[in-house]
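INFO worker-7 received task bundle
INFO bundle size: 2
INFO processing item 0
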Amino acid sequence: MIKMTQRLQTYSKAKAIGIGAPGPLDAKKGIILGPPNLPGWDYVPLKDIMEQRIALPVVVDNDANAAALAEAHFGAGAGYESVFYITVSTGVGGGFVYNKQVIKGANSCAGEIGNMIITNTGPSHPVLNKGSLELLASGTALQRAGKQQLNLQGDAGELFRLAQNGDPTAKDIIEEFINYLAIGIANVIHTVDPDIIVLGGGVMKSKDSFMTELREKVKDCVYPQLRQSVRIEPALLGTKAGIVGAAMLPKQSR
């Protein structure tokens, strides 16, 4: 990260650096606390390390918060007061933006829905809860199920392609994924009641295979009076959302 920043031609003109990093983390101190998908990154003072080497102010926040910020300002959430962004990728993360400001929580853990318990069964993990949303409805979860049940060696996209071609096992895995993700989204809706849920992350490359069913499943899981107002849309900024949001962090932190 340091070498890449120093190689940028515009580095000398920069006034600050924003970093979107996997949570959990301490956004106030810029410390990475032990993300499930970054083994060994325990209590890493990323802000201090970067500031010492780059000699510019550095702001660190959850990568999902950064993406949420970008989508709320420039993407699918633009024009809405409250936007909850969910990334479904290697893991599952979330960020809540209200009135264009990220809601971080007392310990920088607001929106950490990946560790939300969906069921009391499921694989174990050294950091995450058993039966958590991330272990059941992430790209990694799909990849794991594809490998265990179909001996697939590719990513989640391969599983979606098999399901579209009628493979019954692949279809069952995707159906389970949709059910778990729908429960997680319904829990978010009942907790913060956002204007819109925005879905991003690598799994959304296969959105055409599951978005319609996902919307219907979510409606089945919420209060009847909420069903007509459920709004779930794919992210518009794609993989750039986190980068755009990270660039916005220093200004947002003033």
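INFO item 0 finished
INFO processing item 1
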Amino acid sequence: MRKTLYVLAFLFTFQNVSAQLFTKEKVTNSIDNIDKKLLTWGYFIGFNQYDFNFDYNEDLKDIQVEKSFGFHLGLVGDMRINDYLNLRLEPGVFFTTRNLQYDESYFEGFEYNDSDLLREVKSTYVHIPLLLKVSTKRINNFKPFIVGGVSAALNLSSNQDNPNDNSSGEFRMSKNTYFYELGFGIDLYLLYFKFTPSIRGVFAMNDEIIKDANPNSPWTGNISKMQTRGVFINFTFQ
């Protein structure tokens, strides 16, 4: 009986949302005015997947990055410029983990064990992007857009100031990272709020590697540059 009620509740909710989105008529309440306000607010939740891009000094095998899905959440501040342009500030907190798998060729001439071939890189970013949102004309209850801009992130788990390096098992990154961002999404106008799914790519502009004390370190000696890149999937409510 309980399962039947859950199924009926889901079908009822889905039917209402579908009716709001796919009707040929625009929703007719206060949500119509949200695009006319100078300032609007909201929040977002979502998933992320971070990666690293490496440049090397010597032609050894690539360092393999084992990626995983992380979680993030944050706030949205939106300033209307005109019917098609909005300036957005989206500060958030992002959690992610990447594992670096080194090839044995990096350790020639060094004594090592299996644990030395793996470095777990856990990161907690305070991420603050400034974005320009470029929208099309609203079509019934849909409004596609593209978005782009720049951002700064503070990595709370960077280990930048840690005196220990990889010889003690500590992988270190720079505390501050700067990105450019590009993405797209669609505004969906529901009865009481605007729901926006979107996807965005982020690309670091600065080198993030903190070198080990030993210039010939097997973990950092062959890396000339290390930069974060990633994909964000956001669900925004305004």
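INFO item 1 finished
INFO post-check item 1: The helical segments are 2-22.
INFO post-check item 1: The chain has one domain: 28-237.
INFO worker-7 idle
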